[in-house]
Design a protein that fits this description.
The complex is a heterodimer. By secondary structure, chain A is mostly helical. Chain A has a single domain, classed as ABC transporter involved in vitamin B12 uptake, BtuC (Orthogonal Bundle), CATH 1.10.3470. Chain A is built from twelve helices and two strands, in the order αααααββααααααα. Chain B has a single domain (3-299), classed as ABC transporter involved in vitamin B12 uptake, BtuC. In chain B, α1 runs antiparallel to α7. The chains are: A mainly alpha, B mainly alpha.
């Protein structure tokens, strides 16, 4: 029981880190609270549903597709919304209200075009590309894919494992982007001191636009796996996802992708353990955890910076 | 004539008289009651956001706590309406006191923590494990106290108190000190303002107002579920109404409620998605093009708006 809860917690936790990491990037770079984060997750989920039902292929192909679509959407949205917002007196507060408005618009448009019914994808569909390759290269029966994966003698759905591995890869790539590329170095400079970065001649707008696009792209990738991790999705799914993402981001620390990974894993383990032993209180967990972390260590578990009062 | 008296006579009193007279002329009493509730909530947001700069994104937490404070007192102590509304105010203040540590947080951290806190209160009350006290997720039915006319009158009294508080803040040294704290806490404390005490008082007044409003609401509707009284719409509407009119003024939130809630009811509920779309676009346009509210249109021309 405990082993199952722990391993499931780690698998879910890695996925939760992917859920939070885009939000972390956007808040860290622009000091903007993207309350529509969860709605981009929801849109990513519908890209996966579209790929699986309309094209009839492995929903894994939705990962690069969703990323590219929402990278472009993010770049466009950035230029429409953010420079104007940054010019106002209190951008951090107003961003909460602005992006709440955006989330309402996204939810309304999604409901108009997609309806309110719950959408799901049969979990066997995920990862069929691997079993197909295996059959082509090594022969064997095509029925082998999709079954439960055994870890420490317990069976877990293959979709959970695939989601966890994809999350690890995505977080690794974010890390490479931030620490190995030129644009990533500039991004970290903007994160630590926006005005100083500006005065050293860094094109803050270009860096921020890239971070915004990547943030939305990552959210949509996380969304691709949402139908498997949560069973089904509806257009109204976004709001809960946003609060959960905030809990994870704050649990780790802002502007540190490794912190979000840690925050996600801790959150996932807590969630699964509470779910196993005290299931009626599991709904309270993200909120209580968020408040306690904010009060005890506002800079997060791996944070270095001191909060300005 | 001192400003405080002028504001009471020419702004607060007419609003109260209009809402006291309208039920005799206009048939849709529920709509009028909702106007009163949103006037109270928008002014409550004004007290905390306009005068201290803390954005209460989970403001509905106090409102819901008030509604359930009312319900628990009526169900278990068989209290009549008026004492139960007072108990609702106490419930709001208790939740406010529990959440005072959140004031240590700043900016977006406070807003998010407050949102999380309101959801935590919701999940606590809606928890099936507490069914014997709050009826959990199954909702409450308070037929014993059902009396819309008295509830509407109580709503007007709470509105009068709230408007009085805002008039006081607008015209007193206390309100001025709060605005100084909002602009620059360090300088204000250097000038001898007790920053922490000021913020806590404003926070608790704001919580009290929302708790009383929740109690009055529970009295009026008498049958409700946790999801009704903890609906995030209350927080959002109150914030958007206050912001649309312009915060840190007396007239701003009133104008915001009358115009925006009026539009809300004109568009109607027939197609909620289209309504949500229009509302979302309106909110975005408001932040991008009129961040200081309608009042700023006048102040920009140099007119003084109370």
């Amino acid at each position: 029981m405990l082993v199952y809860a722990l391993v499931a917690g780690v698998l879910f936790g890695l996925y939760f880190s992917l859920v939070g990491i885009g939000l972390n990037l956007v808040f860290g770079v622009m000091r903007i609270v993207n309350l529509a984060h969860g709605d981009f997750l929801m849109l990513g989920a519908f890209v996966a549903v579209g790929v699986a039902t309309l094209a009839g292929i492995d929903p894994l192909f939705a990962v690069p597709l969703a990323f590219v679509i929402f990278l472009i959407v993010g770049l466009l949205l950035y230029w429409v919304l953010v420079p104007r917002l940054q010019g106002s007196t209190n951008p951090e507060m107003l961003s909460i209200i602005l992006f709440f408005g955006l989330s309402q618009v996204i939810e309304a448009v999604a409901t108009i075009f997609l309806g309110t019914s719950e959408r799901s994808i049969p979990s066997r569909a995920l990862g069929t590309v691997f079993s197909t390759i295996k059959v082509k290269l090594f022969g064997g029966s095509p029925e082998s894919g999709g079954g439960p994966v055994e870890i420490f003698g317990q069976g877990f759905p293959a979709s959970w494992v695939i989601a966890a591995i994809t999350s690890l890869v995505a977080i690794g790539l974010v890390y490479v982007y931030l620490y190995q590329t030129r644009l990533g170095t500039l991004t970290r400079a903007v994160m630590s001191r926006r005005d100083e970065a500006f005065s050293t001649g860094i094109d803050v707008d270009r860096v921020s636009a890239a971070a915004f696009g990547i943030g939305l792209g990552l959210a949509s990738i996380a969304g691709v796996f949402a139908p498997f991790m949560f069973g089904s999705v509806t257009p109204a799914f976004g709001a809960d996802a946003t609060v959960t993402s905030f809990a994870i981001v704050v649990l780790g620390s802002l502007g540190n992708p490794l912190g979000t990974a840690l925050g996600g894993v801790i959150y996932g383990i807590c969630y699964m353990v509470v779910q196993t032993y005290l299931s009626s209180w599991a709904d309270l967990l993200p909120y209580v955890l968020l408040i306690f972390i904010l009060l005890l260590r506002p800079s997060g578990l791996l944070g270095r910076r001191v909060r300005v009062a | 004539m001192p400003n405080a008296l002028k504001h009471t006579l020419f702004i607060a009193l007419p609003v109260l008289v209009i809402f006291a007279v309208l039920p005799g002329v206009y048939q849709n009493h529920l709509l009028l009651f909702n106007f009163v509730i949103f006037l109270i909530l928008a002014q409550g947001v004004n007290i905390i956001y306009g005068f201290t700069g803390y954005l209460p994104f989970g403001y509905v937490g106090f409102f819901g706590a008030g509604a359930y404070g009312f319900a628990v007192v009526v169900m278990h102590l068989h209290a009549p309406g008026v004492p139960a509304v007072l108990a609702a105010g106490v419930a709001g203040v208790v939740v406010g006191l529990l959440l005072t540590p959140l004031l240590r947080l700043s900016g977006a951290y406070f807003a998010i923590a407050n949102l999380a806190a309101s959801l935590a209160v919701l999940h606590l009350i809606a928890n099936p494990a507490l069914e014997s006290i709050t009826r959990g997720p199954y909702g409450v039915s308070l037929s014993a106290t059902f009396n819309p006319t008295s509830a509407y009158a109580a709503g007007l009294v709470v509105l009068a108190l709230t408007l009085g508080a805002v008039v006081y803040l607008k015209n007193s040294r206390f309100g001025l000190a709060l605005q100084a704290v909002r602009e620059d806490a360090v300088s204000a404390s250097m000038a001898g303002v007790n920053v922490v005490r000021m913020r806590v008082i404003a926070w608790l007044v704001s919580a009290l107002v929302a708790g009383l409003a929740g109690g009055v609401y529970a009295w009026y509707v008498s049958v409700f579920y946790p999801d009704n009284v903890f609906s995030g719409d209350f927080s959002i509407f109150a914030i958007v109404f206050a912001l649309f009119g312009g915060v840190a003024s007396i007239t701003g939130p009133i104008v915001g409620v009358i115009i925006l809630y009026g539009i809300y009811n004109l568009i109607g509920f027939t197609t909620p998605q289209y309504f949500q779309l229009i509302y979302g676009l309106l909110i975005m346009g408001l932040v991008l093009f009129l961040p200081a509210g309608l009042v700023s249109l006048a102040t920009r021309r140099g007119w003084h708006v109370p």
